[in-house]
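pasting input
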Amino acid sequence: MCGIVGAIGPMDYKPFLTGGLRKLDYRGYDSSGLAFWNDGKISLYRALGSVDNLASIVPDRHPGSAGIAHTRWATHGGVSVENAHPQRSWDKKVYLVHNGVIDNFEELRAWLRERDFSFRSDTDTEIIASLIAYYLSEGERPLTAIKKTMERLDGSYALAILFSGIPGLYFAKNKSPLVIGLGIERINCLASDYAPLMDVCSDFTAPEDGTYGLLTGNAVFAFRGGKNIPLSFEPRNREDYTFDLEGYPHFMLKEIAEGPKVIRHAVSANFDAKTGYLFEQSIISSLRAADEIVLLGCGSSHYAAEAGAAYLNRSGFRAVSYIASEWIHGLYPRSRKPVYVLISQSGETADLISCLDLIDGEGRSVAIVNAKDSTIARRSDHVIYIGAGLEVAVASTKSFLGQLAILMLLAGALRHDDAVPLKLLDAATSVEEVIRRKSEIDTLASECYTARDAFFVGRGMDYFASEESSLKLKEIAYVHSEAYPGGELKHGPIALIEEGVPVFAFIGNPELGKALRSNVQEMMARGAASYIVSSSSSAREGDGFVYPAVDPSFAVFPEVAFGQLLAYSLSLRRGLNVDKPRNLAKSVTVN
Ligand code: G6P
């Protein structure tokens, strides 16, 4: 999703801005652009496709004493140079980059048209630039023009703004991520996350919603509602934000390989063999006191929530999981004393933040997130960090394993069950074995990479592994894939089975294996090419892939590792961009 970078002060801007955009490109984008401020004049460059395309049209050592840059993931208006950012006001007084979505932009555009404003793009962002320009034309100074514009905007935005003829790098923030960094040598910077700033900044702050202000080379001034507000800056650990493939060909493969480490870290960070569980006591007490634990997430995080809710139920606690973007519509019953667990790798997912908007103030939210100090982490009443380290590939892999491990540990802590950490350590070993046998999964991928459709099936907890594996196939390999509980196949989906359609069946629970094998037989009788992935305690002769058995509730871990590697291999075979699949973004900051 869109990413912004900006800086002010003496520096070589082209490498800083384009390098910064590359560090944000994990967010997903389809065009990019930048603008330099030099002696009051602003020069603008924009290109479709990769940041390399942008770099190729920007002169080296371009003069400038401030700059802003952007990667755009199209929302309002198609992918075109005119819709790329920076956007400018018609009079070319205001140039800005924007991450977020303005909900009332049509109404504002009509209002501006009545005042003789014209527009070059279809974007909501151009409306912001024009509104600021309108207030400037009314005689307001830049900070007041920004404040008045913010009062008119409904929606989310992180903005970096330059004014023709007026020095300074201006910013505004509401509901979209923004980090400000104090530079090492008379420069100050801002960006959508810390990564682009780590080489040039020492201390950082993430301003609250509603903040706007001004960066100069020597100072940062922040305001809320017209009042000057202090910002507190803190250092960050550089290693948490470094991108290094460490010899792997892709980040996705590196991150799958880190899965076992992430599970073990979840155990060691939250459990001590001598003293027991280490979660904050207040989290455990509020979960115990809840009449319902409501787990919310999107994408992979939603599937982790589903599996976690099932395990919590099995452990004797009432838990339900919902897709965050659906829960907000109020269709589901709300119990008297719920606790909400918000699950997110990025901690910036707008659909989940919308849930927080409804929950805020109740003192009942627990975030399970990976990205430190992200919006969801800061806004929730309690936070448990996954500690998976930076995840760069767009499709979540190691974070899913970490999220589920933490949910299972919470269930263990709630019922004083010290066996859970041991079962998780077994699961980590089993995942390691799946990864070690990647070449077998590559061979399988070579046999089915031309398939247009695929099915993943499972029963009980294994069904959740099917869902997550199926999502991976869609995201990375662009294969139409469905996940079904085994028993449900005959109620419709079986009509889709044709000669050679691959069906992947997960059996981690020997007790459920018999029924699932019958379902697979029914599919095979209609021509499906079945492939059974089973645990060593459920395996039968002829199964395609047998992984070391773990407690059946924990089989999701090795099964999902299998699904991740299968999607990875199929994606490569199909010649696709594994780390940056089309149309997807890592940090989905729009609803
Ligand atoms: C995007 C990503 C998915 C991810 C989902 C939720 O759609 O492409 O891989 O699962 O967002 O993200 P979160 O950061 O909230 O876990």
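fyi The chain has a mean pLDDT of 94.
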